[in-house]
Amino acid sequence: MADPGATYSLSLTARALAAQTADASASTWLVGTNALREENEVRVLRYDAEEERLDSVRALHHANEVWSIAPSPEDTRRLVTVWSKCGDYGASLWSMEDGGVLREEAALEGHSGTIRKAMWLGTDPSLVVTVEEGALHTWRAGSEGMTRTASASAGELVQLWGGALHPRQPSVAATAGGHNVQLWDLRSMELSAQTAGAGPR
Q1: Is residue 183 within 8 Å of 191, Cβ to Cβ?
Q2: Are 41 and 59 in contact (CB under 8 A)?
Q3: Which partner from 107, 137, 159, 182 sits 20 to 30 angstroms from 196, CA to CA?
Q4: Closest among 30, 117, 138, 33 to 75, alpha carbons compared
């Protein structure tokens, strides 16, 4: 039987996982837990290639359930989480402080629906893109917190569930909702293409 590889077991359930790319010298991931009645956390996991194992190098308290996590592409201390508290969804910009403290720098205020996903824009590390139930928003991180800079509606009765940035053209984002995949130009915040009910070819 094949070796299963490196495994790290969490004490709580987790649905949010993302690679931390700001430090190219290490293989590091952030994982967020989403227990309903327990104290949640964000853990920093690092792969030790010599020992072939995953180690937890930091554990940071996060009061609410973590549903999406987006590490800054430039700063290993900053991240955005999409969280839920008693059925209400929000998103916040955080800073990892010494002593296992996760300090909230700013909340992303003014969203119109349930936030599903947050992503940092690679070409401009101060910009964050959020995918909501029926909209896409961009936010700028500054000294005054997070300011919404642009919005686009996905259309009537369209539910967006996830999103990803193009790996080589970060101004292009794809979103998924129902049977559809949409492509967005984040410079103009306009829908540039979509598939409708596409099946295998």
Answers
A1: yes
A2: yes
A3: 137
A4: 30
